[in-house]
Write a structure and sequence with these properties.
By secondary structure, the chain is of the alpha/beta class. The protein has 4 helices and 5 strands. Helix 1 (13-27) crosses helix 2 (47-56).
Amino acid sequence: MIIGIGARRGIDSQEAIDAINNALVEAGRSIDEVEGLASAKLKENEAGLHEAAKILGIKITFIDHDELNNYDAPSASQAKRFGLTGVAEPAALALSEKKELILRKKVYGRITIAIAE
């Protein structure tokens, strides 16, 4: 499964890890089942996301905005102001195999998480 991540500017790695762990608990899933993390290209300079991926030992991919916009986000998103349909849900869907959300986006503090298979 793929975890899509949206984040406010300046988040730290612990915020991201806590959000990921909370989302996995809600989905009834384990970190061992996560194949990758995904976010929007506009987040590729967020050190907290890179650090979280490194600590968890999971690759993070930053997806081009045109690719993200190929996926309809079922939930309303603040990302519309950046010309995106969404971040967490489209990012998770873009890299997933089945293209099915198993956890629709949920906000954990300054992080938004969605999980797709």
